[in-house]
Amino acid sequence: MLFRERKRWIIGLPWTFTVYSCDGKVLLVDMGLFNKKEEEIRLYRILDIDYSASFIQRIFGIGTIHLHTSDKTAKDYDLINVKNAKEIKNVLSDAIEKSRREARVSAREFMTEDTDNVEDGDFPL
């Protein structure tokens, strides 16, 4: 497990039911208490990763990580109010590059116009 972090309130308290975790191959977002929902984003599908933190977020040591992906259900995804967001962004960025090397894909392969006919793991080399 590379990281496991809970979404926090704006004041930095982890009293939410959203957990972000990454095992090196996929990013999992587990949401909800009574009605559970889990989203999975394969790391090699993440095209770009950004970090931002408002003044209030910086005061409480949290930030937001914005992911641009080629995933059909989560084109742009935000990991909101994460503690140590800058460090997690760096860990995630390294894991993304490692996952791309292992899957033998590169970002330029996601830039094609015809991505509707490409299935998971079926990328031209």
- Spell out the helices and strands N to C: EEEEEHEEH
Beta-strand level of the residues, as a percent range?
Answer: 35-45%
Q: Counting H and I runs of at least 4 residues, what is the number of helices?
A: 2
What is the number of independent domains? Answer: 1
Mean pLDDT: 86
Largest sheet: 4 strands, antiparallel
Q: How does the overall form come out from the CA principal axes?
A: globular
The low-pLDDT segments are none
Q: Any guess at the CATH architecture?
A: Roll
Strand order of the largest sheet: 1-2-3-4
Name the helicity range: 10-25%
Please, what is the CATH homologous superfamily? Pleckstrin-homology domain (PH domain)/Phosphotyrosine-binding domain (PTB)
Decide which structural class fits the backbone.
alpha+beta
At CATH level 3, the topology is PH-domain like
Ends apart, CA distance between termini: 29 Å
Number of strands: 7
What's the CATH first level? Mainly Beta
Radius of gyration: 15 Å
Structure description:
The protein is of the alpha+beta class. It has a single domain (3-106), classed as Roll (PH-domain like), CATH 2.30.29. The protein is built from two helices and seven strands. It has helices spanning 55-59, 85-103, and strands at 3-6, 18-22, 26-31, 37-42, 46-52, 62-69, 76-83.
Q: Summed up, what is this model?
A:
The chain is α+β, with helices and mostly antiparallel strands and 125 residues long. It has two helices and seven strands.
Helix-strand blueprint:
Blueprint: E1 3-6, E2 18-22, E3 26-31, E4 37-42, E5 46-52, H1 55-59, E6 62-69, E7 76-83, H2 85-103
Antiparallel strand pairs: 1-2, 2-3, 3-4, 5-6, 6-7
